[in-house]
Design brief:
The complex is a heterodimer of chains A (about 650) and B (about 80). Chain A is about 60% helix and about 10% strand. In chain A, the strands form two sheets. Chain A has a seven-stranded mixed β-sheet with strand order 2-3-4-1-5-6-7, sandwiched between helices. A two-stranded antiparallel ribbon of chain A has the order 8-9. The N and C termini of chain A lie far apart (about 70 Å). Chain B is an alpha+beta fold and about 80 residues long. Chain B is about 15% helix and about 40% strand. A six-stranded antiparallel β-sheet of chain B has the order 1-6-2-3-4-5. In chain B, strand 4 and strand 5 form a beta hairpin. The two termini of chain B are about 20 Å apart. Classes of the chains: A alpha/beta (about 650), B alpha+beta (about 80). Chains A and B meet through helix 3, helix 6, helix 7, helix 12 and strand 10 of A and helix 1 and strand 5 of B.
Chain lengths: ~650, ~80
C-alpha cells in the first residue's frame, strides 16, 4: 500500500514520517526531476490481524496545489496523475492545529482530488487551549474524511493513525469551492468556506503564548545590533566545533587508514593489484571517510538551527544584503560553511527555494577558502616571506593568510554579481516565507538529518571520489613501457649507502616518467606565463583531485638530488633554481601567483561530484570548473606579471 | 499611494494594524492568498529587518516575512478597532 504524506512546511510532516518509518528510509530522486524523494517502510496491522506492508512517501512541503516551485510541482504531479508510479492509495495530510485556517486550504484542495484522505491534526498538545481535540469529529464530518488528533513529537495518536490507515478509507465527495477560471477568485471562495468552518469549531481567542514568546525573542535575535552580534557568535561557535571537535575523529580516521595501508603493505603480495587496492582505492576511500565528522557536525548544527526556527531569522536579517549580489538570505549559511569545506556547504544549499539563487550559491561557494587550502597557503607563505618580517603583534604570515581568505570571499561575491546578470530564469525570486515560532529542537529529527546526509555523501559522492582516485593512481604509477624498469635498473646497479634515499630517488624519477609527469611537461608551455615549471605542473594536475595533495606531491618531486634527505620541503623548494635565469625559482612572484591560483581554481573532485549530484547534471560542475579555472589563470597571470 | 482610503502594506509602520483590501499584482496575489493573506484579514506589522527590508507581518495566526517589493502589492485599509 502506498501512502503519501502531504502538508504545509513546518506542519511537522517530517517528524511524523520519522515516527512512522524509523530507520527504514531511503532517499532518492523522483523520476525525471531534480527533487529529493524520501520513502520509508512500515508494517500496519489491520483489524483481522493481517500485516499490511505500507510504503510512505514524504512529499515536499507545499502550501497549495497551484505549484510555483519545482518542489510543489512534484507534490501536485503525484497527487493529480493517476499514472504516476508514486500515485498513492491514501494521502495523509498533516495539519498544524495551531494554524488551522491556512493549513485547511491545502486539505480542502487535496480532498477535492477524490483520493482517500486522512487528516492528521498535529501539534494537538500546543493547540489545547483552542479546544480543537474535542472537535475532531465535527471537523471530520464537515470535511467528509477521518481526522486523527496527534502530536508527532510526543508520539501521541500515532497508533490511532496507523489503525485508521490499515482500514478502508473512502474518498470524500465534498466540493469546497466552485471551480473558477480565475484562481484568485477560487482561492478567496475557498477561504470563505474555511473561515466559516474554523469559526464553528475553534474559539477565536488569540492571546497566543507561543507567539508572544517568539515576538519577544525576535526583538533580540533580529535586533539591528544584537541580532548580527548573536549571529556572529553562533557562527564562531560552529566554526570552532568544526575545526577543533571534528579534528579528533578525523585524525583517528586518518590513523586508521594509515594502519590499514601498513597492514596491506605487510600482508598483501607485492604487485599491481595490491598497489591499486592500497594506493588507489584505499587512499580514495580515506579521502571520503575522513570528511564524515565534519559533514555530520555541520549538518547537525544546520538541522538544529533550522529546527528551532533560528535559521529563518538569519535569512530574514541577511536577505537585503545578499540580494544585492543576486543571492538570498538563505545563501548565508552555505557560504560560511564553505570556509570549512565546500562539500557539506553545497549540500546545505537545499534550503534555498529559488533555483537561480541556489545555483549561484552552489557555483560560488568553492571560492570561499576551505581548510584544504590551508596547508598550501602555509607552505607558500613561509617560502616567500622569510620569518622575521613581523613587527610586534602584526605578523606578515598571519596578515597574508587573512588576506587570502578575504580575497576568496570578495571573489565569491564578485562572481555572484556577474552570475546575477548572466543566468536567466523564468522563476521569480520570492522571499515570502513563514517565520515559524521558536521551539525546542527535536533531537531525533536532527539525528535523522545527520544520518541521511552522511549516507548520501558516503554513497553518492564517495563513488565518484574513489573512481577519480583510481584514475589518478593509474596515471602517476604508470608510464610508457620500459621507462620504469630502466629507472629501477639504473639505481639498482649504482648502490648508494642509504636505501631509503635511493627509493625516494626512484619514486621521484618514476613520477617524472609517469603519464602524470608527461602531462606536467606537456602543460608546461601553458603554465609558463604564470611562472610555473613542469614540476609545479605535476603538482597542479595531481592537486586537481584535492588541493592538499599539492604539498605531498611537492615533497616527492623535490626528493630528487637531496641525497642526505635532511631538508624540509620548504628548504628544498627555497634552494630550487630557475633553469634559465639561475635565480631562486620560488620568488615572490611565483609564490603569490601560485597562491592566487589555489585560491580560485576548482581543484576538488569531491566538490565537483557533490555539485553534479545537487544540480543533477554535468553542465554546472563543468561550467564551475571552467569559470574558476579561467579566473585562476587570469588572476595568476596578472599577479605574476606585476611582481616579476 | 492612497487609493480611496487604501494604502500599501509596504508603507505601514512597525506595530501598525490594518485590514487587507486587495492586491495589485495578479501573480503575487495567488502566492499571498495561499499563505493566508485574504481580503478582510487583519494584519499587524510585527517586525522590520534591520536594513528596513524584508518585513514580518502577523496574519491568520502566524508570522509571515516578505520583501517590501512584495508587500507593496498588498493594498490595506485602516482596521476598524485598534
Amino acid at each position: 500500500m502506498k501512502i503519501a504524506l502531504a502538508g504545509n512546511p513546518n506542519s511537522g510532516k517530517s517528524t511524523l514520517f520519522n515516527e512512522l518509518t524509523g530507520l527504514n528510509q531511503k532517499t532518492g530522486n523522483f523520476p525525471g526531476v531534480t527533487v529529493d524523494k524520501k520513502v520509508g517502510y512500515a508494517n500496519l496491522l489491520n483489524k483481522s490481524g493481517l500485516v499490511i506492508q505500507a510504503s510512505f512517501i514524504d512529499l515536499p512541503g507545499t502550501y497549495s496545489l497551484q505549484p510555483r516551485s519545482i518542489d510543489e510541482e512534484v507534490a501536485c504531479e503525484i497527487l493529480k496523475n493517476k499514472n504516476h508510479p508514486d500515485y498513492p492509495d491514501v494521502v495523509v495530510v498533516v495539519v498544524d492545529a495551531t494554524n488551522l485556517k491556512r493549513n485547511l486550504f491545502l486539505v480542502t484542495q487535496i480532498i477535492e482530488l477524490e483520493l482517500p484522505v486522512v487528516v492528521a491534526l498535529n501539534m494537538i498538545d500546543l493547540a489545547g487551549h483552542l479546544g480543537i481535540s474535542d472537535k475532531a469529529s465535527v471537523l471530520a464530518e464537515r470535511l467528509g474524511v477521518p481526522v486523527v488528533p496527534i502530536s508527532a513529537r510526543n508520539e501521541q495518536g500515532i497508533s490511532e493513525l496507523k489503525t485508521i490507515l490499515s482500514g478502508l478509507i473512502m474518498p470524500s465527495t465534498i466540493k469546497f469551492a466552485p471551480a473558477n477560471e480565475n484562481p484568485a477568485v477560487e482561492s478567496i471562495e475557498r477561504y470563505n468556506v474555511i473561515s466559516a468552518l474554523v469559526n464553528d469549531i475553534v474559539k477565536e481567542d488569540r492571546p497566543d503564548n507561543k507567539i508572544s514568546l517568539t515576538h519577544r525573542l525576535d526583538k533580540l535575535l533580529t535586533h539591528r545590533i544584537w541580532g548580527y552580534l548573536i549571529f556572529l557568535l553562533v557562527l564562531f561557535f560552529i566554526f570552532q566545533s568544526i575545526f577543533y571537535i571534528a579534528a579528533f575523529p578525523m585524525q583517528w580516521g586518518e590513523k586508521l587508514f594509515i594502519r590499514f595501508s601498513d597492514l596491506g603493505h605487510l600482508y598483501l603480495p607485492k604487485g599491481e593489484l595490491s598497489d591499486l587496492l592500497i594506493n588507489g582505492v584505499l587512499s580514495g576511500l580515506s579521502g571520503v571517510v575522513i570528511f564524515v565528522p565534519q559533514i555530520a557536525l555541520l549538518f547537525g548544527f544546520i538541522a538544529l538551527l533550522e529546527d528551532t526556527g533560528y535559521m529563518a531569522r538569519v535569512s530574514f536579517i541577511m536577505d537585503k544584503l545578499m540580494r544585492r549580489f543576486g543571492l538570498n538570505g538563505r545563501s548565508v549559511i552555505p557560504l560560511i560553511s564553505g570556509v570549512a569545506c565546500a562539500v557539506p556547504a553545497v549540500m546545505g544549499t537545499r534550503t534555498i527555494s529559488s533555483w537561480k539563487e541556489r545555483l549561484v550559491t552552489i557555483l560560488i561557494t568553492p571560492l570561499m577558502s576551505c581548510s584544504a587550502r590551508l596547508p598550501v597557503y602555509t607552505l607558500l607563505i613561509s617560502l616567500i616571506f622569510p620569518a622575521g618580517t613581523s613587527s610586534g603583534f602584526f605578523n606578515a604570515h598571519g596578515l597574508v593568510l587573512m588576506l587570502m581568505y578575504l580575497i576568496g570571499f570578495m571573489a565569491a561575491m564578485a562572481a555572484a554579481l556577474v552570475m546575477k546578470f548572466i543566468i536567466k530564469t523564468k522563476e521569480k525570486s520570492y522571499f515570502i516565507m513563514e517565520l515559524p515560532v521558536y521551539r525546542a529542537p527535536r533531537w531525533t529529527n536532527v539525528a535523522y538529518t545527520i544520518y541521511d546526509k552522511v549516507k548520501v555523501f558516503l554513497f553518492d559522492a564517495g563513488k565518484v571520489i574513489v573512481a577519480i582516485s583510481v584514475i589518478l593512481w593509474v596515471l602517476s604509477s604508470h608510464g610508457p613501457s620500459g621507462k620504469f624498469a630502466e629507472i629501477e635498473s639504473r639505481y639498482n646497479t649504482v648502490p648508494t649507502s642509504d636505501l631509503a634515499d635511493n627509493n625516494a630517488l626512484i619514486a621521484a624519477q618514476k613520477l617524472e616518467a609517469s603519464y602524470a609527469g608527461m602531462l606536467g611537461k606537456a602543460i608546461e608551455p601553458a603554465i609558463a606565463p604564470l611562472g610555473f615549471d613542469w614540476k609545479i605542473g605535476i603538482a597542479l594536475i595531481s592537486s586537481f583531485a584535492a588541493r592538499e595533495v599539492f604539498v605531498g606531491t611537492m615533497a616527492t618531486i623535490y626528493s630528487v638530488g637531496d641525497a642526505q634527505n635532511t631538508m624540509s620541503i620548504r628548504e628544498k623548494m627555497m634552494i630550487e633554481k630557475n633553469v634559465t635565469t639561475g635565480e631562486p625559482l620560488y620568488s615572490k612572484a611565483v609564490g603569490l601567483s601560485l597562491m592566487i591560483f589555489f585560491a580560485f581554481a576548482m581543484q576538488c573532485m569531491s566538490t565537483l561530484a557533490v555539485v553534479k549530484r545537487e544540480t543533477k547534471s554535468w553542465k554546472w560542475p563543468v561550467i564551475q570548473f571552467l569559470y574558476m579555472g579561467i579566473m585562476a589563470y587570469g588572476a595568476s597571470f596578472v599577479v605574476y606579471t606585476l611582481f616579476k | 499611494m492612497k487609493q480611496g482610503g487604501t494604502y500599501t502594506l509596504a508603507s505601514m509602520k512597525l506595530g501598525e494594524r490594518a485590514v487587507i483590501d486587495s492586491f495589485t499584482d495578479n501573480e503575487m496575489s495567488l502566492k499571498l492568498l495561499e499563505m493566508g493573506c485574504t481580503p478582510g484579514e487583519t494584519i499587524v506589522v510585527d517586525n522590520i529587518a534591520p536594513m528596513g527590508d524584508p518585513i514580518a507581518i502577523f496574519v491568520s495566526g502566524y508570522l509571515l516575512s516578505l520583501r517590501k517589493k512584495e508587500a507593496s502589492t498588498i493594498l490595506v485599509k485602516p482596521a476598524m478597532n485598534s
